[in-house]
Predict the structure.
Amino acid sequence: MQANRVLLTGANGFIGTHILSQLLSHGLSVRAVVRSPSKATALASTFPTAANTPSLDFAIVPDITTPNAFDAALQSPNHPFDTVIHTASPFLYRAVSNNLDFLNPAIQGTTRILEGVRDVAASSVRRVLITSSFAAVADLANAASIGAKVHTGADWNPVTWEQALDEANRGVAYQASKKFAEEAAWKFVREEKVGFDLVTFCPPMVYGPLQHELKSLKDLNESNGRIYNLFMKSKEDADLPPNGLYLYTDPRVSEIKKALCITHSFPEDGAD
């Protein structure tokens, strides 16, 4: 069975816009979820031929942590959703004031989208995809061991909640946000015995060109911002700055192709 109607959260983000572009290019109908009308307007200008046609409409969810946050967005009686792709999760370090600004949106936002599918779209949704992270899987505190290990679905970053709350380390809070959000997703699927498949994919750092335009360099996404600062705010003889993880992928050739491959066909069995 082929997918044809997709709900995409975080659609105006770095990865989200690449996914949206590819979904539209493959003829799928997409509802893009963003936080404000102004973000919807900006996204529509990036995809002017598709915007506000049967190919692309928009939903506004100002706060993904609130109960029933996605219920209205998931209502599409004339063209029900068969696929949900959840990419909305904070990664912009300069936008957080404390570690909970990473943790709560990631964990609660993931839970809310799954609750919404269960409560509003259970009869039509066949698959939910969540953009997790290699940070959820690997022991990044022991980076030297990463290259020698083959990671599987049984591996989890050993970071604890107590470590995640340590305000001295934003990076650990981000890692924990991805781990605990993905754990919450799998727990939900097990306990609720849902009728849809859950797929998470866990890329390392993601570097590549933007799909959307920026008004200012201060709006550059976190990963590309590190590349920019390395070249433009450094010196010729400077040491290589810490990056946490020296593995990367390109949103055009791996993250997106994986999302499309998974989205385009469904197995006959249940949650996987």
